[in-house]
Amino acid sequence: GYHFYVTRDGQVHAGRPIGQPGAHCRNHNRHSIGICYEGGLDTQGNPKDTRTEPQKAALRKLLSQLKESFPQALVVGHRDLNPMKECPCFDAAREYSDEIN
């Protein structure tokens, strides 16, 4: 259960209410907001950053909006919280370290 899902065309779809714990990252669901983007695999099914430009823009806008409500929040990827995971297939902490983190 994610709180938000971003499709390839940049549309942001709401999932679980933010006040409800997600089911996206074991041991971190109660104190995190889960955002998933469509894609993340190459044509052979291997992990790869496949975000489109509209997805990148939508993710940045969503994260900026969430940061207004949760100013102390850090933006990290699933892989930063669970070494067995590769998603989101890019370094979220570094990519959003400018005005968001």
Automatic annotation (TrEMBL):
One of its GO terms (biological process) is peptidoglycan catabolic process. SUPFAM superfamilies: N-acetylmuramoyl-L-alanine amidase-like (SSF55846). InterPro entries: Amidase/PGRP_sf (IPR036505), Amidase_domain (IPR002502), PGRP (IPR015510). It comes from the Bacteria. Keywords: Hydrolase. Gene3D superfamilies: Peptidoglycan recognition protein-like. Its EC number is 3.5.1.28. One of its GO terms (molecular function) is N-acetylmuramoyl-L-alanine amidase activity. Pfam families: Amidase_2. Residues 2-88 form the N-acetylmuramoyl-L-alanine amidase domain. Transmembrane segments: none annotated. This is N-acetylmuramoyl-L-alanine amidase. It comes from Candidatus Bacteroides merdipullorum.
